[in-house]
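seq as requested:
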Amino acid sequence: MIFKEQIEKRREQEQKTLRESFENLADALGVGKKFVPRAQGDDDAYRTVLNEMGVPDAELNPLEGDLQEQFEAILRRNNIMYRQITLDKHWWKDSTGIILTHLKSGELIALQPGVWSGYYFKHPASGKKIWLNAEVHKQLSSQAYFFYPALPSRPLGYKDLLQLASRSLAVSDWIYILVACLIVSLFGMLTPYMNKQIFNNLIPSGSQEDILPIAGLLIGASVGSVLFSVTRSLVLARVKDKIDVFAQSAIMSRVFNLPIKFFRSYSSGDLSNRIMSFSSICTLLSDQVISSILTTLFSLVYLYQIFIYAKALLLPSILILTGILVLLLLTYRVEVKYQNKILSANSRLVGLVFSIFSGVQKLKLAGAETRIFKKWTDAYKDNVRLEAHPPILLRMNSALSGLCTLGSTGLIFYYTIKNEIGVSDYIAFNSAFGLISGALVSLFMLIPFLAQLVPMYQLMKPVMEAEPETGTESTQVSHLSGGIEVMNLSFRYETKGPFILDNFNLSVKPGEYVGIVGTSGCGKSTLFRLLLGFETPERGAIVYDHYDLSKVDKRSLRRCIGTCLQNGKLFPGDIFSNITVTSPWSTPDDAWEAARLAGCADEIAAMPMNLFTLISEAGGGISGGQKQRILIARALVNKPSILLFDEATSALDNVTQQQITENLDKLGCTRLVIAHRLSTIKHCDRIIFLDKGKIAEEGTFEELIARRGLFYEMSKRQLNEERENEKAD
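struct tokens:
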């Protein structure tokens, strides 16, 4: 067996050497192409998904480890989200995005959407393209994965959003929209033509036999126009939904990967309003704007009809349409500035209202209803002032439109009389001109919506311009042994403020249990934020094993660390989801084991629905101690090699705390614990006392007490209480 493994390793090394030789030869010839061996099994499917997601240069090499791990690492680096789905019957008839699944024979395949509709895949063995149908569907596993395109991990502009929107749509979507708008416009051309025929031929001849055919033709044209208008609306609704789904997924993925310091600049309500503005943009564009603009563009064909029927009226028609466009643009510019002010004021108001209702219990306890109402009215009055006093051009818009209509009618009559235009030609011209001017006037109705696009984009700008934590070049961390080195670390929150940590050094061995104590404001919680990559030090470095924190994918690093911070919260949902939120692949057995280690398994088992008992965000229905233990279970479910606890057991009694400590001792992981209770840190391998951003004292509990220094002075009150309790017992 040993010799077989050695032979396999030697063969892999020879293949790798041969590949490198070909690459070197290609580089010498100026080709510079990477020679990747043809994948055996899953390689082609993974590559197809990555290419569809816009990651064509990703290297998947079967010789360099597990393909699935490589694939997932590439997805994480590029912030590409995916979810598990069930392939129900007839799902393949409408193509949406790329899907990864298995044949029942075991081969992994990528299901690619067709240009017009449907799905196909390339058979792993033959390479033949196979289109999905009822028979082929029977050969597929019912479980699959759906992937969502992501935005690049860099500051973005509006072009990136447009590219994302275009990638969300198939070629067929664009063709359907253009064809539907064109056909509606062509049907409209029939009305001026038939009017000319009626007044030029039918009425002068007095023939009644021709009335029914002409009436039937006009009715047919109207019905056809309505049907294609409905088709256009359905296609636009589909386009809106597709863009909204993919764009919102990409935006949320980006938000989740922004650094923590970004969220300090905005309230929750304000940030929510900014994020949802992109969905509002999609709705505006697809529901009204795209349709109206395309209809207006295609209505330019009516100018050709005007040229045919009343050539002398073409110039005044163009002058009138130009005047309408100028007024349209002026109104648009004024409306943009107006909407920008309204949306900014509304965003601030939403943020304030969200904060008020989030802390309504504290406000009532403090009796601050009157003061907070005054604060709300101060913010709301800006909205009222803006809405009550719009710019003068917007208030006069209806009057100006009426004047334009009156002036254009007079100009048309003047040129009609001057050039002696015939009745039938004028009627045909009037129909064509009415259609094109009606399309432009419809844009006037859209100005309030069009004007919101720029302000909404301005609201989104902070989210777009902030740079995510993860870069495509960041090193992925899959495992940590538990060693931590903090070297010459200096950090402050403000550029000109005092250093919270100044030239700080700390070395933690794998498996060591370290307690961190100190007075309030000494930098304990800040140290944890730095260790987790939530803050960036001004100087110095933090190293986990051989990984420099500044050069790794911080998300992958945090997966190796179990964290329970001071202000940890539960999510609305069941207990199982709350425990496994950091480890979605965990089973109920894993959750029970984590709950056992956290000392809450028996209490969960006694609840009506066990692990699936529902709890609220505020922890309604459970005590503070139970909430803390569920949060500890969440930190333990992934079996991390490092644990960071910041006052994680402050609500627990000494017996429960001791039980959890004993359970954690058996795990053998590295533990850094911030605590004020002596019972929490008494059994630490080492206790560090921080003072003014530096380590003032260091040693075991007994050593620090015997030293009678800063730690002893801070602990005297608790020590005296313990002695009094012992005497009382």
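Residues 1-10, 28-40 have pLDDT under 50 and may be disordered.
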